[in-house]
């Protein structure tokens, strides 16, 4: 087990509860910046761009997996949790990145993947070599098959990537063997979290990275790990359609909470407020809140908000339910519009740039912590026309040959579209991503979306994000707290006031009035909403006077009282 050394205190300011209203930026290492010119993003590339993130105004950087991996699922198949994959660099590169981030006032959150390992993990390779009855097999879910000769899977569970969640092994003597469980790709066998050795190993892994100074962990498939006793059948197909609508025998089992109570004691033993963030798909905001009870994790992704359409009634309902569910457990709500697994929100909201900008300002005005996905600050759209031969999403290759997607059987397999390397400059073979091209082709129209093209353009999306984050830091009314003050508004408009908590630094008795028009038409505001204050920021042009709220526009006004 890794020795538990005294962790260094990070240079980042230790504000009490920093994570409660933090803006956290997701870096997908493959696609952020290439430091060695091989066409693949890496840790030195990220390190070189940290000043950009500090200037953007975020509080922390979340790094998607960079561990040693065969890359069957873009690094979410981990072969060694204490090693860096050579395509991304070395452990020294990780140390340098963490240190420089702290010097810039940025915190670092890393992914941890505890539900499953790679099939190249030494534990799993030994389990296969040693055969049935091996103690190594108890660290995963190996089972004999059903049927006269064990030719059928042990149960009817389906993989998130499509097809059965079981793969049959071959015994050392060449005969057909047991089956093993993989809720994702066959290259990602699920750990058995009833095994004490598995629990001990991940305690050690957490300490390894905490000793290096990371500020927290984003927990992949946090709702997985514990399976229902006896691994019961579901009794029907199309199980992915139920994800996030009901508790399943392989997801959101109550036993996961014991694990997180254990992990919280480890996090709390380190200085600097280290945090745990759950990626938990649950049936309701109330179920998500269970992961954030006192003594468990600090944050959980708000997937219910991410999947809400741009419609005032639906948005108000999900905002209220999100805040209401977190308040009893004392946890902050999180807000997110895009990530590495979903269609970028510009495209998801109909490809309307103004609407996407309005959605961003609405999100950043809500109390709690906000997550940004790399490139959204540039207004990048989803890349929808990638050649089949360049795609690397494992679900893509498990699609039925006679169907356009795996809908009903698994994910659609088209996640590569949000993972295309981002443009830094308007020129060059990869728009400044690196000197050796990019691992996924970038659209030709991205030159005008590059960082260099937007930096000095006051109307650009990049400048909007920088302005919004700067205001959010200056104004205690934004981000902090656990509620909003709704105001009566015309149909299709969200109107609420944010006030600073009593005694908050910088509080002057003022407030921020937020108005969001989710319709495609300009709306004349009633007298009670026409603000008599100072315009802080608008997602698009706003007529003088403030009594007209343009279509698909969000506005922040500074008011008094």
UniProtKB/TrEMBL annotation:
It comes from the Bacteria. Residues 135-155, 395-417 are annotated as: Disordered. Residues 26-415 form the Glycosyl hydrolase family 13 catalytic domain. One of its GO terms (molecular function) is alpha-amylase activity. Keywords: Glycoprotein. One of its GO terms (biological process) is oligosaccharide catabolic process. Residues 136-152 have a biased composition (Basic and acidic residues). Belongs to the glycosyl hydrolase 13 family. This is Alpha-glucosidase.
